[in-house]
Recover the amino acids of this structure.
């Protein structure tokens, strides 16, 4: 993930975001979801966090809910429709 995905976050939240990615890679999905929720409390519209929450929710077996989260993310604003991370995750679900 490039630094643009964590732009505007505090250093602590950037570390939380990186830890969430690590949890996903290690298949620690419940821990990753907890980190997503923490980040979304502080940054409710953070595109990449919302997209990863959809991906992780899908990985937990809730494919429809994960896809719904991702669609909601995409429809929030036009910039999200152009976000390559969102489209990549959409393809993975």
């Amino acid at each position: 993930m490039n630094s643009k995905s964590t732009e505007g976050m505090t250093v602590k939240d950037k570390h939380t975001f990186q830890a969430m990615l690590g949890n996903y890679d290690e298949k620690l999905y419940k821990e990753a979801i907890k980190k997503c929720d923490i980040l979304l409390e502080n940054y409710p519209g953070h595109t990449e966090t919302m997209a990863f929450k959809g991906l992780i929710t899908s990985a937990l077996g809730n494919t429809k809910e994960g896809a719904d989260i991702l669609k909601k993310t995409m429809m929030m604003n036009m910039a999200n429709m152009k976000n390559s991370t969102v489209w990549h995750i959409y393809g993975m679900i």
In short: Residues 47 and 60 are 20 Å apart (CA to CA). The mean pLDDT is 91. The radius of gyration is 12 Å. DSSP finds six helices and no strands in the chain.
